[in-house]
User: What shape does this take?
Amino acid sequence: MKRWPRTPETLAAFIAVAMMLALLSGLSGCASGDTPLGRVLDSIGSGVAYPLSPEAEQELERFDTAYYQIAGSGDDQGQLRHFRDAFRRIRLNYVQPVDDRSLVNAAIDGVTASDLTVSDVTPRAVVERGLDAMLASLDPHSSYLNPKEFQETQVSTKGQFGGLGIEITLENETVKVVAPIEETPAALAGMSAGDLITHVDGEDIRGKGLAYAVNLLRGDPGDPVVITVVREGVVGSFDVSITRAIIKVRSVRWRLEGDIGYIRVNRFTERVEPGIVEAMNALRDALGGEMAGLVLDLRNNPGGLLDQSIILADAFLDDGRIVSIKSREDDNQRSHNASPGDMASGLPMVVLINGGSASASEIVAGALQDHGRATVMGTQSFGKGSVQTISPLPVEGALRLTTALYYAPSGRVIQAEGILPDIVLKREKTGTEQGDITREADLPHSLSGAGTLTGADGPVIDAARCQPVSDLEDPELACALGFLHSASSAAFLSSVGAQPPS
Assistant: This one.
């Protein structure tokens, strides 16, 4: 059994969101200008350590002018200082250099929007709108977190939270379902990946941002909510009534498929590490001996905690690099390497991915693929290869800011490109046309990758040709099991009428 190193050096090397959030939960209640911590952060935000250029100061004066035009001549200088703090941190820490004028233009557009109401013109509300717009102009994953949203960032990584049980993103200013979480109210109500949510309890949420939608969708357990859905292939919109519940994410599930172990990781929460250990022990105990192979299913897994993805990849690797993380500065590059010990003892292994496999899932798939430890099957993954750092602001709230990019062990970029399977599995009804699935590269303001995606070199097979698995309608899993039971890759491809790559 692999023992996970817990040295201070190892923990310091992780830039895991889990660790950051644990720290932030202690900071959020005291990061104000009236506390020692707040005064330290204030000294950084005020420019003592990082003074702004005269040109940047001029741009901030343009925002000040727009602020006073909307909020009046009130004496709430704290909110303007709040905006300046965020502006400085973006300029200093964002993954790539940013243009001051573009940042301020986006913020001004946010505070001068024509849909302002009376409640939107308080100093706090005006600055929040400016920060929302400024962060949204960077990339799909950077955002400003107001105090309430900042507190809520901690719940989803703990594996338990209140809501419907869906992972969502924005597409053309409309909330889109990435994937429903298994056995949650949303999944049981029939919500599907790709569904667009236009209204919540009759309120049109298009164009109002992801954080706004999340606030409406979450609520007290037992309270119902009606969401209006637009689904591809269905004429018009329709309403779905869902009762909110405490969402307990069982991150790791497992079962035996004959003599092959099947492990499904739904999301990378803090429960992945104990879950994978429990799964491997339970599978061996249930079989009463060694398995013939292992399937690791990461389909529709949107990601989660970085440290848990490193732990999962490390579980099946003896050595070698797992992932590299590169920020804007050349001297701030980090790599995470595997420690000795393979929990599966070298068993043949398949990793299943699809267009809903993102971020942490892509780290695991890329590491196991690059080291030749597993055969990756399915379709091209989502392509989210960026790191978001959540840091508190001195006045209130926090920034969720893209600060680095992930790279697979071979050095290939994940951002906007994703992981290409060794064997592409298509379905006769939908094929593998990339235009049918929204990926990272399709999102507004998406960061481009540094590499060139030329397409899969491996074979493409029709998943329907694989022998069905009992009564389960899961052709991709059937293909994975067939591959592991075959004497060789060539034998498997021959059995499904495909030719090995030349």
